[in-house]
Amino acid sequence: MGVQDSDPMNELKRMAAEEAAAMVQDGMAVGLGSGSTSAMMIDALGRRWAEGLRFVGIPTSERSADQARAHGITLVTFATHPQLDLAIDGADEVERGSLDLIKGLGGALFREKIVAAAARRFIVVVDESKLVDHLGSRVPVPVEVTSFGWESTARQLGDLGGRVAPRMDRNGGLFVTDGGNMILDCTFGPIADPPALAAAIRGVVGVVESGLFIHRTSEVIVAGRNGLTRLVA
Ligand code: 5RP
Fold this sequence. Notes:
Elements: H1 8-21, E1 29-32, H2 36-50, E2 56-59, H3 62-70, E3 74-75, E4 84-89, E5 93-95, E6 101-102, H4 109-118, E7 119-127, E8 131-132, E9 141-145, H5 150-159, E10 163-166, E11 182-187, H6 194-202, E12 207-210, E13 212-213, E14 219-224, E15 227-232
Parallel strand pairs: 1-2, 1-4, 2-3, 4-7, 5-8, 7-14
Antiparallel strand pairs: 5-6, 6-13, 9-11, 9-12, 10-11, 14-15
Helix pairs in contact: 1-2
The structure holds ribulose-5-phosphate.
Subunit structure: Homodimer.
GO molecular function, one term: ribose-5-phosphate isomerase activity
Function: Catalyzes the reversible conversion of ribose-5-phosphate to ribulose 5-phosphate.
């Protein structure tokens, strides 16, 4: 279980993930992110669970749910815990000035955004390669859309100025999210006004949610070659 290799950056990411996991205290309700960094964080929580820490988690993907269950971590739903103390997740890009994010290259953005929105504090863990001056510099904006009419949704997203490509799975079929939807990866290049673009994307019929996380981050823990840095919103 967990990611194990000799890449020194992975070791730093693991340290950052452990630092985030150390923020979880007894009795908390915690959002559990998705992706390789979150997997390290869930493993760190699993080790703390084995030492006696007790909390409840809401996972952002079936994969994270399986991983948490394998550690014996108690999972709950929003029915009993509509508000979370903390959510911890990775990101694909972090804008240095605003700490706004692009998320969703792993395909879990919709559940990730619901969990982040439900949390009093949203902690993001990344390595320094994810820091950018402008969102969209390195990765597309993933947009979760309904499969019905996706071609029309894609055309309208293209009208916003992006190059739009449906996400494919490993077998060459259309990628399907945990919620049964599709992802359109929209390449805009460096985005001048992320809040305005996020609002415009949400205005397109057929869009479920975008991977632009605006004004949601409480703190970013950055793993860098010179150690860990904490950026606070
Ligand atoms: C999944 C995500 C992930 O948090 C993001 O892709 C970062 O993943 P990793 O830690 O593997 O780089 O948004 O939807």
